[in-house]
Write a structure and sequence with these properties.
The complex is a heterodimer of chains A (210) and B (231). Chain A has 210 residues and is mostly helical. Chain A has eleven helices and two strands, in the order E-H-H-H-H-H-H-H-H-H-E-H-H. Chain B contains four helices and ten strands, in the order H-E-E-H-E-E-H-E-E-H-E-E-E-E. Classes of the chains: A mainly alpha (210), B alpha+beta (231).
């Protein structure tokens, strides 16, 4: 939030449009931090070589469990913001143009109109939301061992492992995509993007905010 | 404001996908144990022959997860290792690794179950029965329990004297027909065939016979005092 104007953007501030509110950026930062802590501690808990170096199983496990339990909290708090709720609804809705965008080989050329979020971003959001829920549920069963019988705990471990691997890959993909687009990163860092970028990447949304 | 732009309009596919995946997750909890069994049988030969070690990074099949509750544990070898039997006994004793290896060995094949749900099927264990060590030491009449201690300096496990004397509670010197590795808690660790993994002290250094059955490391942190496999 403090970086506004600290680096020259591709367009003057008057050419910027608002993309994310402060509340949305706070949710993103909190979720990113908690997810990062979960992934790092998960690697230590899962990988034998790392575990033997770091040790302190209980501390690492407690940090992992409580970061995981805290993970949905910023998402739920975000619901207090109308802008956040509206964006969740945009991510939820999937139309014919989205299907075309997903199937198209030339999806980035702008011929298929894209709203505030493209179809890939929508699918990513669904998978992240679902993974978070599944990891939370299975994690609770693994941590509070008295809740269900052993065979279900084995099932929970199985699901938790695979979904965590999937979420890890989604996060890597998310970071790779962001690393290729400085303007998209500026949008999440400062809340503002250039009008030109909005026109190129999200034409329908640019029409909407004009 | 209530109606997003035309490009964002469409069916609420996201909600359906999320709910569907949550349901799939629940199905996975119920059936995952069996699926894991199948996968594990299929993949075990690949994992055993994997020279890159890459398959250990992904959750393929049933694999070991190594636990340590302290910082790095200083390894001990045949020269530096000792096991003390102490407490309420007539004949306290200290065993070297060679002493333990010279005692009668018990072998059995048993699945390792972690209380959190992961497991490793059909592990061959070999070692000295704790009962033999207790018989040699001769617990006094006021002895009630046994406390296993680790040379990591922190871990300990409680059992009643009767539990510790079970035929499948062994000071394990070999797993898979090989000396127990450091990561598995070698040179000597406890394995209790009928109990969850947390009842098996790694890097075993002492068996103390006690006047009570006070909780050990994980027992103190909420795991059951007895630790028998429940299913």
């Amino acid at each position: 939030m403090s970086e506004v104007g600290s680096r020259p953007g591709p367009a003057a501030p008057s050419e910027d449009v608002q993309r994310f509110t402060a509340a949305e950026r706070w949710v993103h930062r909190s979720v990113a931090l908690l997810t990062g802590v979960c992934l790092v501690t998960a690697a230590i808990l899962y990988n034998g070589a790392l575990m033997m170096v770091v040790g302190h199983r209980q501390l690492v496990s407690d940090v992992h469990v409580w970061s995981g339990i805290a993970l949905p909290v910023p998402m739920l708090l975000g619901a207090a913001s109308a802008a956040y709720r509206r964006d969740v609804s945009r991510l939820d809705r999937f139309g014919r143009a989205d299907w075309r965008w997903l199937r198209s080989r030339s999806r980035r050329d702008g011929t298929i109109p894209v709203g505030k979020f493209n179809a890939g971003q929508k699918v990513n959001a669904w998978l992240v939301a679902a993974s978070t829920g599944v990891l939370l549920g299975t994690g609770v069963l693994m941590h509070w061992t008295g809740l269900v019988q052993l065979s279900w705990r084995s099932g929970a471990t199985f699901v938790h492992d695979w979904v965590a691997l999937g979420l890890g890959l989604l996060v890597v993909g998310h970071i790779l995509q962001a690393s290729k687009d400085p303007e998209a990163r500026r949008g999440m860092r400062t809340g503002r993007v250039s009008r030109r970028w909005a026109r190129t990447e999200h034409r329908r949304w640019a029409d909407e905010v004009d | 404001m209530t109606d997003p732009s035309a490009a964002d309009a469409g069916a609420p596919v996201g909600r359906r996908v999320v709910l569907g995946l949550l349901g799939l997750g629940a199905v996975g909890v119920v059936t995952g144990g069996a699926v894991q069994d199948g996968l594990s049988r299929l993949l075990a030969p690949i994992q055993l022959r994997d020279p890159t070690g890459l398959t250990s990074l992904i959750p393929l099949g049933d694999t070991w997860r190594y636990y340590s509750v302290t910082g790095a544990v200083e390894p001990r070898d045949a020269a530096s290792y000792t096991l003390a039997v102490t407490g309420l006994v007539d004949e306290p004793a200290t065993y070297s690794l060679a002493d333990l290896e010279a005692l009668p060995q018990t072998s059995f094949v048993r699945t390792f179950y972690c209380i959190t749900g992961w497991r490793v099927p059909d592990v061959p264990w070999t070692g000295v029965r704790v009962a033999d060590l207790l018989d040699a030491a001769g617990p006094t009449s006021d002895a009630v329990g046994v406390r296993f201690r680790s040379f990591d300096g922190t871990y300990s496990v409680n059992m009643t004297l009767a539990q510790a004397r079970a035929r499948d509670v062994v000071v394990t010197l070999q797993m898979y027909g090989e000396p127990v590795t450091h990561d598995h808690g070698g040179p000597a660790r406890v394995h209790a065939g009928s109990m969850y993994g947390y009842k098996g002290t790694k890097w075993l250094s002492e068996i103390e016979v006690t006047p009570d059955n006070a909780p050990g490391y994980w027992e103190d942190r909420g795991y059951p005092l007895d630790g028998y496999l429940d299913e």
